[in-house]
Specification:
The chain is an all-alpha fold. The chain has helices at about 1-5, 10-40, 50-55, 60-80, 90-120, 120-125, 135-170, 175-185, 190-210. The longest helix is centred in the last third of the chain and has 35 residues, at about 135-170.
């Protein structure tokens, strides 16, 4: 899988990381729209809860996206270390841990959403039986700090991967000013991937030459 991420063309990664997840989300949105429109055209009152029949697939789409996107990060941040010049040390171990934290966190949330959607009972809510939300404040107290920490980990991962790319490219110690462009290209990957991946392809060739 590492070879795929290093050698894949920019358009291949664009399709994998952006086109496929967005297409599935559009399909889900169209499904909800047509279900509501069909009911309205049949003279029935549209049931907004029908969206849960489609939204329950959204977490699975997001898990696919997370695996593709962060798999790209992981490969760049670990495999290109062999091209880092002597005397320059990048903290790969910390990168691995901080990259895995948001992945595990987001996958756990997606699994929780799948469980909630699969056990959602619209008939009970229509009858006035609302779910118990007494534990919601406790959940929020735990969720909010975790969410901000996960965001920090994501930005750190982008920082590390951008620094790795620029270090290999310039073959010297770099500062944030040297790789700020790469940082934002990783953040807005749907644009940056077209610029970064050709560079990574050349680095993959250098890895092969190095053996």
């Amino acid at each position: 899988m590492a070879n795929f991420y290093l050698k894949a063309k920019h358009w291949q990664l664009f399709v994998l990381i952006f086109v496929i997840p967005v297409t599935f989300q559009i399909i889900l949105a169209i499904g909800v729209f047509f279900s509501l429109m069909t009911a309205a055209m049949a003279g029935q009152e549209p049931n907004p809860f029908v969206m849960f029949d489609y939204i329950k697939w959204f977490p699975l789409v997001m898990i696919f996206y997370l695996a593709a996107y962060y798999g790209w990060f992981w490969t760049i941040g670990t495999q290109l270390q062999r091209l880092v010049p002597q005397g320059v040390t990048l903290k790969v171990g910390r990168f691995k841990v901080l990259l895995l934290i948001p992945v595990i966190y987001l996958v756990a949330i997606m699994i929780l959403l799948v469980f909630i959607f699969n056990n959602f009972n619209p008939a009970a809510m229509e009858a006035g039986n609302m779910p118990d939300v007494s534990l919601l404040p406790i959940f929020m107290v735990i969720f909010i700090p975790l969410h901000f920490f996960a965001m920090f980990c994501i930005f750190h991962s982008m920082y590390f991967v951008a620094k790795t790319i620029k270090t290999v490219e310039l073959q010297r110690e770099v500062s944030f000013g040297d790789f700020v462009a790469e940082f934002f290209m990783l953040w807005f990957y749907f644009v940056g991937i077209w610029i970064l991946q050709p560079k990574i392809n050349k680095m993959a060739e250098a890895l092969e030459a190095k053996g």
